[in-house]
Amino acid sequence: MTAPTGRRERKKAATRQKIADTALRMFLDRGYDEVGIRDVAAEADVAVTTLFSHFASKEALVFEQEENFAQQLAQAVTDRAPGEPLIPALRRQIHAMVRHCSAERSAPIWGMIDRTPALRQYEESMQSRYSASLAAAIAADLDQPADTTSCGAIARFVIDAFSLARTAADPQAAVDEIFTMIEAAWNAAGTSRRA
């Protein structure tokens, strides 16, 4: 995400961050299902309409960095070094994301997500969006149509690799194991010639 430059943009970003931080603290302290939108707005000292101008839903408060996730995956494709193969670049990015999620400070948040059906469902809907944006980035990189099956399938596998690895007993080993399969599938599809 680009840092806001103007005073108004900085103020909006600060308000958004304050709301997200307040919500997360309250959810972790009291439990996600025990805290309502009005509670978060009151604690953050904003109107409910202000909260909804920054976040579309209660679930979005937990996943306030979701935009960064999709951007980081797309950048793993577009910003890799010339000649660097696609799958190793994506593997490196998923390793970094899994490390972040399994860090001590992130564990309580992911534990809450895993225990809360509404948050798990929201995460699954986000994964569909991530998958579509990653598939588009891969297809564009290969100069192929956005709906190319192999690009869509590999994108979905990469997103699923993150979900599976972050809950594994050894997350980093799980990433490597899954990406061995992803690379084999990518090579079998014959799309690795340019990526």
How much of the sequence lies in strands comes to: under 5%
Order of helices and strands: HHHHHHHHHH
Mean pLDDT: 89
CATH superfamily of the largest domain: Tetracycline Repressor, domain 2
Radius of gyration: 19 Å
Low-confidence stretches: none
CATH topology of the largest domain: Tetracycline Repressor, domain 2
Alpha-beta classification: mainly alpha
CATH class annotation of the largest domain: Mainly Alpha
Distance between the termini: 26 Å
- In total, how many domains does the architecture comprise? 2
Second-tier CATH architecture of the largest domain:
Orthogonal Bundle
Estimate percent helicity: over 70%
Total DSSP E strands: 0
DNA-binding region: 36-55
Protein name: TetR family transcriptional regulator
Pfam families: TetR_N
Keywords: DNA-binding, Transcription, Transcription regulation
Write a concise synopsis of the structure shown.
By secondary structure, the chain is mostly helical. The protein has helices at residues 7-30, 37-44, 48-54, 58-62, 66-78, 86-102, 107-115, 117-141, 149-166, 171-189. α6 packs parallel to α9 and α8 (117-141) crosses α9 (149-166).
Quickly list its features.
Arc Repressor Mutant, subunit A, 10 helices, 195 residues, 74% helix, single chain, Tetracycline Repressor, domain 2
Outline the structure in words.
Residues 36-55 bind DNA. It holds the Pfam family TetR_N. This protein has two domains: 7-56, Homeodomain-like (Arc Repressor Mutant, subunit A), CATH 1.10.10.60; 66-189, Tetracycline Repressor, domain 2 (Orthogonal Bundle), CATH 1.10.357. Helix 1 (7-30) crosses helix 2 and helix 5 (66-78) packs parallel to helix 8. It is globular and about 55 Å long. It has helices at residues 7-30, 37-44, 48-54, 58-62, 66-78, 86-102, 107-115, 117-141, 149-166, 171-189. It is mainly alpha-helical. It is built from ten helices and no strands. The longest helix is centred in the middle third of the chain and has 25 residues, at 117-141.
